[in-house]
Amino acid sequence: MGRRIEIELTSQRDDGTWTWRAAGAKKPKGDVTSGLLYDGAEVGDVVKADATFHLDGIEITNVMAPKTKKERSDLLELKVRPLRDDELVTTQRVSRESRGGGRGDRPGRSRDRKGGRGDQRGDGGERRRPSNSTPQRPKPKRLRPRRVHRDALLASIAEEHRPIVEQVIRDGMPGVRAAIDKQNEEAKSDDKPAIEAAPVLAIAEQNLAKARLAEWRDRADAALSDAAELDLRDLRSVVVVGTDIARDDESKAIADQLKTVLDERMESDHATWLADLRSAIGDGRTVRGLRLSSRPVKAGSPLPTDLATELASQASKALAPDTPADRWAIVLDALAFSPVRGAVTPVGVPAETSDELLAEVRRLSDRIPTIAALFGVDPATVPKSERRRRSPRHDRSRPKGKPKGSGKPQGEKAPAPSSEAKPAEKPASDTPAEQAPSVDEAVAAETPAPEASAPEATETAPVEEAPVQEAPAEAAAVADEAPSEDAEA
What we know:
Helices cover 40% and strands 7% of the residues. By secondary structure, the protein is an alpha+beta fold. β1 (2-12) and β2 (18-22) form a beta hairpin. The radius of gyration is 34 Å and the shape is extended.
């Protein structure tokens, strides 16, 4: 496997070859032909070289010339002209009293301006608070592990084996096999003998458990240092992986500590989630409440009945005939992933349905079939490609640079709604009450199952590939919500 190292040229032989050693080492390590060296090479030069590590030694494949310091030739000469007596400047400092008081007495700062600013404050000089009572939560930290344990592991391994262990840490056993195949392909193209995979794989398998443990220890240390502010998904992933990795007493103690921290965080975050949801519903922020309800902290925990009833009522009132089409699309997108979607009955459909709204209804038809039926849309007739298509406002997975709606030619317009897709003239309020499920039944049907225990990690899988049980898939689709979508019309 190839890597770049620093070498020192130690001597030159009569046959034209040079000996070298690793920078800072005591004994020479190998030799290199003069054809790979640069002009003006001398004994004692420390340079960078590309080396290939074989089981029988290290082969230098390329040597880079040392960088020379360039002399700057683009400097401008600054010529100073001596000042005359009439160009000299004098200064005199004055006290605050001599200036006439504070900042408010300066010219241009009138009392009216100060009074105007004071009008923005309430009695007693307190600044007015916005009507929104939902607190702004800080963005959780992401896991940023260091390389303390991994570097310690690499330092304890023979130098010729380090590239193999680094590959194991980075990509696991599949990455080692892929690197061997790539190196053999390059050797075949250069008419060089291929390396034997069995000894390299044996070295990788011998150090696999140590590499996985070292990487997990780095992640566990980072999780414990930021346990109070760490993203719950990252904390949960470290706990799940530690269940399979921790074998010695020290690692088991760290894993138990992480489990305790995770349980405490889940309880506190769940209470915070309920408080934010209750505040959003109390402020009448329907979209914010729907999106919060779709992201519960604890899987399998249903919404309280009072919150679910009020949220379903607000969502039903938000879907009214006089509601703009773009507002309809925003509410439907938030409702489609909320557990109360089965208990929401719109007041009525818009008198005029835009193509964008109809496309959004078709996309979400399998999640809101009752509402889709009001627009004459049958989820069974909607192609799978339309259900996966996201509108530009919410599609964050579409690669940059591709035209919007890349599944169709750019010049092609959206198909006009057929006679079967016309909005129903009968308002939703005329629907018999027995056809709509109750709020408790709708929430119970949409409540995700409790988290299942994590499957055991395979022997060849890297730490990052360990499965993590998260919130429902529909909740992950709206995990990042734009602030503008929370603003009520």
